[in-house]
Amino acid sequence: MQAYSRTNRIYDATKTFGNIVTFRDLEQATVDAITLFGDKNTKNVVLEKSYKEYMEGFTDLVTGEARRGFMDVVQELEQRFPDPAAIEKESDKKAFAKLFGEYLRVENVLQNYDEFASLKALQDLDMSDPAAVEAFKAEHYLDDEQLAQMQTIRLPAERKIQDYRSTYNDIRDWQRRQKSSDDKVKSTIDWDDVVFEVDLLKSQEINLDYILELIFEHNKKTKSKADLVDEVRRVIRASLGNRAKEGLVVDFINQTDLDEIGDKASVIDAFFTYAQKEQQREADELIETESLNSDAAKRYIATSLKREFASENGTELNAILPKMSPLNPQYLTKKQSVFQKIAAFIEKFKGVGGQV
Q1: pLDDT in tens, 212-228
Q2: Whole-structure pTM value
Q3: 69-101 per-position pLDDT tens digit
Q4: How far out from the chain centre does Cα 237 lie?
C-alpha cells in the first residue's frame, strides 16, 4: 500500500495521479490490503474502473449513482453543441460548461489507459495503406477484430476539440467578468454548481514553442497567410496560457517573410526577437501615453514580467503614477486604469524575455 500511494504524489496539473503497472497477479492481495484500511466497499472508492466502464458508463457501487461513459458524453456534446461559437444564451453557456467539464474529467482518466492512447493514434492512421495498418496493429498489439472494434468508436476531431476548449475558456472569462462587474444585469441563472476544470486544461496546455513550430510546418504546406492565421488563432484560443498572445503571434506572421526561415529553431528565434522589440515599443508607448514616471514604471513592469503578473499591493504602483494628490477624485480611477493596462501588457509579453 505504501508503494502504491507513493505513485500518487501529485505534481501541479502535470501529474494528477499515478499509473500502476503490475506483471504479477496482485488483484486479490491488493483488495485484501485495501479492506484492512476500510470495509468491503473501500475498494470501489480506491481502485479505478476498467477502460470499458469509463468508455461505456457504470453504476458507482458505493453511491448507487449512474456515471455516464465517454462515448455518451461525446455524443451529447456533438448533438447539443455542433457549433460552439454559436452559443449565446446564458443557459446554453452554463449547459455547455457543465458538459465539457464532464468531458474533460472522463478524458483525463482515460489518458492513463493504453487502449485510449491507441484509439487516439488510430485517428491519424491511413486505413488505405496496408503497410501502415499492419505496422499500427503490431505497435499496439491488435488483431483484425480488435482494430475493427476500435473503428466503431467515434472521437471528435482535434479541430472540434480546440473549438470546444476555446469556447470553454471564453465562457470562463465571461463568467469571471460578470462576477466582478458592478453594473451587470442581474442573472437568473445559478452558476454555483459549475466548476471550471482549470487544472485539467493546464494539464493539456499547448506551449508557445509548439505554436511557433506549427507556423513553420503549416507555412511549408500552404503559402496562404490567411489560412495560417486562422489555424493559429484556433490553436491559441484553445490554450489557457497563450490567449493574450494571439495578436502578437498574428502580427508576427503578417510582418515576417516566413519563407526565409529555414527550420523550426529559427522560427522560434525570429518570434522572440520580434516579440522583444514589440515589448520595448509598447512599454515606451504605454509610459508616454499615461504620463508615467519612466524609471519607476520600467522597474515595476520589469518586476511584473519576471514574476509573470502585475500586483496592486505595496507602493510600487503608486510610485509610477503621474503626480496627483491621492485625495483627487480622479486618482483611484487613474490608478485602476493604469493597472489594468499594465496587467494586460504583462499577460501579453510574459515569457518573451528581453529588456523594458
Answers
A1: 998 998 888 887 889 99
A2: 0.73
A3: 999 999 999 999 999 999 999 999 999 999 999
A4: 9
Domain boundaries of the chain, sorted by first residue: 75-202, 208-349
75-202, CATH topology level:
Methane Monooxygenase Hydroxylase; Chain G, domain 1 (1.20.58)
Cell numbers linked to 29: 492481495
Gap between the Cα atoms of 34 and 299, Å rounded: 56
Residue type, 295: D
State the chain's maximal CA–CA distance in angstroms. Answer: 79
End-to-end CA distance of the chain: 53
Determine whether 342 is exposed, middle or buried from the number of CB atoms within 10 Å of its CB (0-12, 13-18, 19+): buried
